[in-house]
Every structure is written in structure tokens, then in C-alpha cells.
Design the sequence.
């Protein structure tokens, strides 16, 4: 027996009622459930998907964060995280090193579903900064060290990078929305290592930036054209070694003459680049995102 339209005796209701209570269309609610795990329906004896008041609160939180300018993936993660914080979650008390070890074990075993589940649990209780700074980036550094020692295979390194790249880009969905400053992010020509740049973009997004991401192996003419069109507050070029910088040094300096420019990934700042006013981003991507944000605000 239903108690009002779409409501049963246990206070559960169908998606139409959830839509009515939240002001979000049923199609969009289904998309949020499928993409971000925002909703947690149960099945009625007849097979209907039924929702609870907690789902209403989660949707309302997500809408509030979307109104604040967050990307959908981050808004959903934050809505779930806030719910967990009001109760508890055992994962919240686990030290980051233990989570990294669990993630490393899953990725070393090529167990993508388990790795995704670990990341799901982490996102339910951690900020994007914590996810990146305490788990993902330290794990990637450890993986790189293991690869150099021969303790990790090429296959393991490629598999882990592919899984994490996909997950981080999932979090990046909608990172071009909002009203904050714009950053154009690109890897220098020939550079394929982009995980650090993606992480930097996510950390910027968490601080209100809008991201235009050009990705790996980006021609500098394309970077220049894009920057001319969107007029960014910052252009960031990434490379893991100076070998990528030398062949395009003249173009990089010319680009720096037209836009505020930073170079990330290279260990030390080249005197020629420093003389051209190019900012070196040699530290942790999360810390560097905080520093760049502060510098741009001070200059505004």
C-alpha cells in the first residue's frame, strides 16, 4: 500500500517522488546514480527501485555544491563524504600508508575492480587534496622507484597508470565549469606523462579554477591558439625532463611573453626560462596548486 504518491509504508519512494522532492529530473538522478554512486536504492519485492530520505539529502547536498561551482564528480563525492562524516566510516581512520599498500596490491595483481572499490571508499571520506596528496601521488612516486629498481614490471606500471588516469579524468569531468580563473594545461611536444598534470588540474579545480586541458604531446602552436581564445590567467606546460624543453625553448619563451606561464615537472629551473619570467613548478602538485592560486590572487 502506498502512503501518498510513490511512497510506501516504510517511507521509501520511487524515483518520481525523489525527483519531486529534490527538483532534479529523473533522468539526471539516474545519471548521478550510475556515474557517481550518489543514490542507494533498494529493491521492493516486486522489483521496483525505492529510495530513502537519505537519498534526498545527498541530492540536495550535491545541488548545493554544484551551485558553488564544483564539478559534478567532486560535488557528488563531497555530498557522500559529508554524510559519512556525520556518522563514521572505518576507512576514515585508516592511515594513508595502509590505503596505498592496499591500492598497490590491487594494481600489482591487475585487479581493476578491487582498485576502483578502494578509490570509491577513499573518495567517500577524503577530499580531492587528500586523495592526491596522501595516496595517489605518493603511490605513483613509489611505483616509479620500484620500476627503476626492477621491482615493478612495465606491464604493472602501464596498468596502474591507465587505471589511475581513467579515474582522475573521471573526477575531472566538468572541471571547465565555474566562474574562477582559467588555466590551460598541456604537456610539451613528445611528452606522454600526464598524470602529474591531471593531478595539478584537479588541485586547481578544488580551488575554484576552470581548466582547459589539452593533454599529452601538445603542439605549442595549439597551446598558443587556445590561450589566445580563452585568455587564461595561467598556462602550464609539463615535461619530465629538460630534453623536452630544449627543442622548443624559443617557442616557450615567446609564449611566456604573451601569457603568464609555468613549467611543471622539470627538476630545476633553467636560467633562461627564469629570465623569461616562467614560474617553475617543481614541488608536489597539490602544494604547487595552492602556491599558484595564491600568487594569481595577489597579482589580481
Sequence:
Amino acid at each position: 500500500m502506498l502512503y501518498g504518491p510513490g511512497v510506501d509504508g516504510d517511507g521509501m519512494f520511487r524515483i518520481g517522488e525523489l525527483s519531486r522532492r529534490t527538483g532534479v529530473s529523473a533522468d539526471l538522478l539516474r545519471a548521478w546514480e550510475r556515474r557517481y554512486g550518489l543514490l542507494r536504492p533498494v529493491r521492493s519485492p516486486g522489483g521496483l527501485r525505492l529510495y530513502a530520505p537519505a537519498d534526498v539529502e545527498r541530492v540536495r547536498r550535491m545541488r548545493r555544491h554544484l551551485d558553488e561551482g564544483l564539478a559534478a564528480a567532486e560535488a557528488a563525492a563531497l555530498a557522500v563524504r559529508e554524510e559519512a562524516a556525520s556518522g563514521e566510516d572505518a576507512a576514515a581512520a585508516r592511515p594513508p600508508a595502509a590505503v596505498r599498500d592496499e591500492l598497490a596490491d590491487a594494481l600489482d595483481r591487475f585487479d581493476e575492480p578491487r582498485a576502483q572499490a578502494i578509490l570509491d571508499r577513499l573518495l567517500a571520506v577524503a577530499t580531492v587534496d587528500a586523495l592526491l596528496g596522501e595516496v595517489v601521488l605518493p603511490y605513483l612516486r613509489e611505483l616509479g622507484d620500484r620500476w627503476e629498481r626492477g621491482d615493478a614490471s612495465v606491464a604493472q606500471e602501464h596498468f596502474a597508470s591507465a587505471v589511475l588516469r581513467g579515474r582522475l579524468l573521471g573526477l575531472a569531468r566538468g572541471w571547465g565549469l565555474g566562474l574562477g580563473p582559467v588555466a590551460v594545461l598541456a604537456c610539451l611536444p613528445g611528452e606522454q606523462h600526464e598524470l602529474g598534470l591531471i593531478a595539478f588540474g584537479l588541485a586547481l579545480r578544488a580551488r575554484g579554477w576552470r581548466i582547459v586541458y589539452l593533454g599529452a604531446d601538445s603542439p605549442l602552436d595549439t597551446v598558443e591558439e587556445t590561450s589566445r581564445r580563452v585568455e587564461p590567467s595561467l598556462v602550464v606546460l609539463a615535461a619530465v625532463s629538460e630534453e623536452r624543453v630544449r627543442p622548443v625553448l624559443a617557442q616557450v619563451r615567446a609564449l611566456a611573453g604573451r601569457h603568464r606561464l609555468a613549467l611543471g615537472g622539470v627538476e630545476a629551473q633553467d636560467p633562461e626560462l627564469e629570465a623569461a619570467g616562467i614560474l617553475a613548478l617543481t614541488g608536489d602538485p597539490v602544494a604547487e596548486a595552492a602556491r599558484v592560486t595564491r600568487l594569481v590572487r595577489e597579482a589580481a
About this structure: Confidence is low (pLDDT under 50) at residues 1-9, 87-92. The radius of gyration is 22 Å. Strands lie at 42-43, 49-50, 182-187, 210-215, 234-238, 261-264, 279-281. The chain is about 55% helix and 10% strand.
